[in-house]
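re the bet — no i am not wrong, look at it urself. input seq straight from the record:
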Amino acid sequence: MNLADQLRQSFREDDSDASFRNWARYLSENNVDLQDLLMLLDADRFTAMRFLWLMGGLVEIDPERVAPVVPYLFAKRFEIKVPNYDRSIAKFCWLAGIPEEIEGEVIDALFKWILDPKISTSTKSFAVLALFKQTEKHPDLKHELKIVIEDQLHKNGSSFEKRAGKMLLKL
């Protein structure tokens, strides 16, 4: 049984946080090429959601492992019909970084997500963090990010207000 099939089976048998953390460690420690697993996003909704959950844990412990697949994940944003897919993309961009070849498009999408009233607060929070990280490389983004955060600060939940408020102070 190949690794993708093992993951698919594992997701069905044990979808606990501990199981996902163990798989994330396994993928990291064994230098698994995530390109070989990306087809799990095109599987059934349950499998795709669990794979994103696994990737979310992996990016926390090994962002360099996730970085090479960020362009692919971003490109699939209109095709993958999984709840909060944009949240995952924003988190990956925050922790693994934004690849140079798609930088402009991703930065634009992150700003749009922050301003979109239909986008979840958690997505907006990760988008703010990803954009703030980009201000180190592109200081000219600071002014625009500050304006967007100030506009959105009280239009979203308290968790966004807290996180965005901290970023506002740093800007």
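see?? The longest helix spans residues 45-61. told u. also The chain has a mean pLDDT of 93. so pay up
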